[in-house]
Amino acid sequence: xxxxxxxxxxxxxxxxxxxxxxxxxxxxxxxxxxxxxxxxxxxxxxxxxxxxxxxxxxxxxxxxxxxxxxxxxxxxxxxxxxxxxxxxxxxxxxxxxxxxxxxxxxxxxxxxxxxxxxxxxxxxxxxxxxxxxxxxxxxxxxxxxxx
Length: 147
Fold this sequence. Notes:
Elements: H1 13-24, E1 40-46, E2 53-59, E3 62-63, E4 66-70, H2 81-88, E5 93-96, E6 101-108, H3 111-124, H4 127-134, E7 141-146
Antiparallel strand pairs: 1-2, 1-5, 3-4, 4-7, 5-6, 6-7
């Protein structure tokens, strides 16, 4: 499956360039968050307002073949736009973790399940804890499960 439609790259140059390099290389280049060495995945979805294809790079938090998608937005007071896209259309999503993208279903987790995924996420990217301390909102954690 591919998500059909017009691809609208990120307005952020570094995100746009990272996604392009990651995809073009089959995940062998641009596969970490800038120079941190922390692995990333590429998530493809449809924009809920425009219907355009959107792509983002997120921290690679994998457990048992599933992936956490942490809507931190650096601790901003609102959720990132991509969070709303995924919640609006959770079955039309792809993840690329290596050479080729694959279909996933996305769901938001709560309670003990969220706590476990949050702990895994902070272990990969400790800044998430700082981001949570900066904001009054509970940072959403979604889980992408391969179909």
